């Protein structure tokens, strides 16, 4: 479904395309933000975390900042989150990877998007971005607060959130191993708060050690899991945008 709209969406005016994709029995809702001055710009696919959505302040701020600088942004909800169908209890890494594949395929055929793209993922979204880059060609990655070994963070997830998941989530997660693919991935920016209460910052170091150049690790000395501090959030958005623009620029 294509619907091109120019409107003020709360804090900024943008041109965007609302879409819905069918993935098996799930309906995936998303939006493409388009800069007004570029015909077919490079774009960023954003992947939110386990219990988040495309409407989080982080991702709406990213859409605003990036489009003002000539990059398009694709935001979408994984199933069980936001406007997408399904139940969060059924979510798994496998299901989310399949949904990311469909969104990426949609973006690749979008008439208003260019050929070059990056993926920006937060937490589980960053983990999925790495898995995706281990299979498909991506020009750049920017990952925030991303686990190296996903099952290791189970004790750090609040009990009330864990109760929303089935045991199949961690059973499925244990079938994935970043160690085996990180050596094939390059052009990765890693942003992580040193006060991350969910994913210890040492995970960022382990990912950084294993991916190939060019790569960048930036630690936030007082940053939490979501980099909620105003200074940290703005610094992260600026740094990730600069990284993506550098590696998506025409050569």
Could you describe the 3D structure shown?
It is a single chain. The model is unreliable at 1-12 (pLDDT under 50). The radius of gyration is 17 Å and the shape is globular. The protein is built from 7 helices and 9 strands, in the order ββββαβαβαβααβαβα. It has helices spanning 57-67, 93-108, 124-133, 159-162, 167-173, 202-210, 230-248, and strands at 4-8, 13-23, 26-34, 43-47, 72-76, 117-122, 140-144, 186-193, 212-220. Helix 2 (93-108) crosses helix 3. Strand 4, helix 1 and strand 5 (72-76) form a beta-alpha-beta unit. Helices cover 30% and strands 25% of the residues. A 9-stranded mixed sheet has the order 1-2-3-5-4-6-7-8-9, sandwiched between helices. With 251 residues, it is an alpha/beta fold. It has a single domain (4-248), classed as Rossmann fold (3-Layer(aba) Sandwich), CATH 3.40.50.
Summarize the SSE layout with pairings.
Elements: E1 4-8, E2 13-23, E3 26-34, E4 43-47, H1 57-67, E5 72-76, H2 93-108, E6 117-122, H3 124-133, E7 140-144, H4 159-162, H5 167-173, E8 186-193, H6 202-210, E9 212-220, H7 230-248
Parallel strand pairs: 4-5, 4-6, 6-7, 7-8, 8-9
Antiparallel strand pairs: 1-2, 2-3, 3-5
Helix pairs in contact: 1-7, 2-3
Strand ordering within the main sheet: 1-2-3-5-4-6-7-8-9
Note the overall shape.
globular
Largest sheet: 9 strands, mixed
Radius of gyration: 17 Å
- Strand content range: 25-35%
Number of helices: 7
CATH topology: Rossmann fold
Question: pLDDT under 50 segments (min length 5)?
Answer: 1-12
Task: Please indicate the count of domains.
Answer: 1
H/E series, N to C?
EEEEHEHEHEHHEHEH
Mean pLDDT: 93
Overall CATH architecture: 3-Layer(aba) Sandwich
The tally of strands reads: 9
């Amino acid at each position: 479904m294509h619907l091109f709209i120019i409107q003020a969406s709360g804090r900024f005016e943008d041109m965007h395309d609302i879409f819905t994709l069918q993935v098996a029995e799930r309906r995936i809702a998303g939006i493409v933000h388009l800069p007004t001055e570029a015909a077919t710009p490079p774009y960023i696919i954003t992947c939110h975390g386990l219990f988040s959505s495309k409407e989080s302040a982080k991702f709406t701020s990213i859409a605003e900042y990036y489009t003002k600088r000539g990059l398009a942004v694709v935001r979408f909800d994984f199933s069980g989150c936001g406007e997408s169908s399904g139940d969060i209890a059924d979510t798994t890494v496998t299901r989310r990877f399949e949904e990311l594949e469909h969104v990426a395929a949609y973006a690749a055929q979008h008439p208003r998007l260019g050929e070059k793209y990056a993926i920006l993922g937060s937490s589980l979204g960053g983990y999925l971005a790495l898995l995706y880059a281990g299979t498909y060609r991506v020009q750049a990655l920017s990952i925030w607060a991303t686990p190296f070994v996903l099952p290791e963070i189970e004790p750090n997830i609040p009990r009330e959130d864990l109760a929303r998941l089935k045991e199949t989530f961690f059973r499925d997660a244990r079938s994935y191993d970043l160690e085996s693919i990180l050596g094939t991935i390059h052009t990765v920016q890693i942003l992580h708060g040193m006060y991350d209460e969910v994913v210890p910052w040492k995970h960022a170091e382990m990912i950084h050690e294993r991916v190939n150049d060019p790569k960048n690790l930036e630690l936030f000395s007082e940053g939490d899991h979501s980099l909620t501090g105003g200074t940290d959030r703005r610094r992260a958005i600026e740094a990730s945008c600069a990284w993506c623009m550098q590696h998506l620029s025409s050569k």
